[in-house]
Amino acid sequence: MAKNDDPMRRDQIRPVKRRVEDEFLARPGVVGVDIGEKVTGGRSTGRPAIVVYVQRKRPADEVSQSELIPEEIDGIATDVVEEDYVLHQVVLPIGSEAGTPAPAEVARAIVGGLSMGPCRPIRLAPPDVPVPGEYSTAGTTGAVVTDRGGSGTVMMLTNFHVACVDDAWSVGDTMAHPSRVDGGQCPRDVFGTLARCTLSSHVDGAVVELVESRTHDCAIADLGPIAGEAEATIGMAVRKRGRTTRVTSGRIASTDATLALNYGNGLGIRTLRDQIRIIADPVPFGDRGDSGAVVVDGANRVVGLYFAGSRDGRSGFANPIGRVLEELDVRLCTQPPSPRGPDSAKRAES
């Protein structure tokens, strides 16, 4: 029997999975569809399957016939797995930032892997937050990029839901490092302005044009200079450096994940397809505040843009970097770092 990471077997399963995934995602509680290995009684069977992820796995006798996932589709096994996913940014009421267990970190040069967030307050209301009011948000700087259009504009890559957050964003919105959640102040800590963004069926991305007063390095804090880009492959060992969990590692389990995520804030449920699924080794791979980090292979080549994960930290998800760069019309900066290098990210005293 072919293994679930056999590319030929995946090529056979992929069109069937794509044909049924929207139907499955429309069913109550379904949050994702992927290609994986069927697990029975807690043990891997070695049998490739279309894996359906649900917020809560219910006994078959509690599920209506119209909601049941068939055991097979065109001869391909299915598996139903309980796992819920969330976007990994931090959201806190304005005024409550002080005293939070956020990293006290301030960098002289802007690199990937640092705390960032918009200066503007975000107006939120239930069910997105418990209490209506104005909130601050935080995520992670990903990697320095430059405009493909010939202008040479230097920008920082991150997620749409980190830099834009809701449907009230505007080009020119100011961004701070550290974020306001982490003690940053505007305009003192502004490092750039929102240049462009995309929230498509494959990419949750944004780029922030750096202000001239802030220096930058084409590197990731604690990981070093970026060596370029690479395509994600199953079994690849990867790392990321995020605002909250710092450097973590894992392995790519799939490049076929489809997720339905609640972006709230006037944006609603969005479906992202052909996403990279990463299994943490050890747990966690990411947590709230890590959105926007880039995922790199062992040679420090960027393979993805991290944006979401499971609530328990076992799984993380990233947009394929090729699609990110294409949709945002930018290229990765791989020039040698300045003498300060990625070690310029220094932790401030508490």
Structural write-up:
- With 350 residues, the protein is mainly beta.
- It folds into 2 domains: 7-83, GMP Synthetase, Chain A, domain 3; 84-350, Thrombin, subunit H.
- The chain has helices at 7-25, 160-163, 321-328; strands at 30-40, 43-54, 72-73, 76-82, 85-87, 90-93, 105-107, 109-112, 115-118, 122-124, 133-140, 144-147, 154-158, 174-176, 190-199, 204-210, 215-220, 224-225, 228-229, 237-242, 246-262, 269-280, 294-296, 301-310, 315-320, 330-332, 345-347.
- The radius of gyration is 20 Å and the shape is globular.
- Residues 337-350 have low confidence and may be disordered.
Record keyword descriptors for this entry.
3 helices; 27 strands; disulfide bond; 350 residues; single chain; GMP Synthetase, Chain A, domain 3; mainly beta; six-stranded antiparallel β-barrel; protease; Serine protease; 2 domains; Peptidase_S1_PA; disordered C terminus; Thrombin, subunit H
What is the count of β-strands?
27
Q: Describe the main β-sheet briefly.
A: 10 strands, antiparallel
The rough form would be described as globular
User: Hey, roughly how much beta strand do the residues contain?
Assistant: over 45%
Q: Which CATH class of the largest domain?
A: Mainly Beta
Question: Helices and strands: which structural class?
Answer: mainly beta
Unreliable residue runs: 337-350
What is the residue-mean pLDDT, rounded to a whole number? 91
Distance from first to last alpha carbon: 56 Å
What is the number of domains?
Answer: 2
* Series of H and E elements: HEEEEEEEEEEEEEHEEEEEEEEEEEEHEE
